[in-house]
Write a structure and sequence with these properties.
This protein has 300 residues and is of the alpha/beta class. It has 10 helices and 10 strands. The N and C termini lie close together (4 Å). It comes from Balneatrix alpica.
Length: 300
Amino acid sequence: MTRANSPQLERLQTPAGHAISARLFRTDAYSPRGVCILAPATGVAQYLYDDLAHWLSGHGFHVVTFDYQGIGLSLEGNIRDCRADVLSWANQDCPTLLRWVATQFPSLERTWIGHSVGGHLLGMMPDSHLIDRAITVAAGTGTWWLNAWPTKRIVWFLWFVLVPLLVPLYGYFPGKRIGIMCDLPKGVIKQWRHWCLHRHYAPQAEGEWLWQRFAQVKQPITALAFSDDEMMSKASIDALHGFFSGSEVTRIEISPAQIGKKRIGHIGWHRRGYEALWQHYLLPLLPAAGDLHVTPAAQA
């Protein structure tokens, strides 16, 4: 697919007073098939999903990408001053984005595609009723002893050594400096660590209200997992999706060989080169094409 259009940048004001940055990739289809919302993994900037966004746009979907507060284009000022945590992403950023999408495209079906923490936020946000279906990708709990091996050793060192040492010293998590993830606001990394030290992750740490919020998600969920994911084990993926007690969850595991690749892993499936994965495993989960017509500029 060629990249016919540049994305439209939007600054969306949240009720908490901060703004988040989102981009809209409009399809050239005469009859759009729906809207796909790409909810990123922790610390993965929205531009890293551009290849997938353009591809989906070329297949008849409007696509929205965004950055959580404190990440990428949604970082305002110095990261040391950012007050975001994961629950503020769920309670402020995600609902603001969903309401904007619902206003822009009230008649189109909306699909939430949540990568890693983007799948967690599906169950944490209050406005999940504004989506029609959800697809989680490489999403499992962060409970450290459920992490895939050998990442489990690194995660143990992260939670018990690096975060307690570095966050008070720097005022944020200096991921870029030490080569682990990216820079994260202190509220995000501290809350994430707190959850990951509980067997039942965030719902156990936060209490009954969060169990209930996960249970309130009624839309069908398809969980895509990768057999060589270095972060998420099958146990962690099953644990997360077990929280969605009100949803019908379908689990699909994909191996690199099934798409003609040597590796998929936790990060990278959304970049160019993974079109076979998108074509054979993602596209069939989205609204059917029906009588789809696209302009020549959007065709392969």
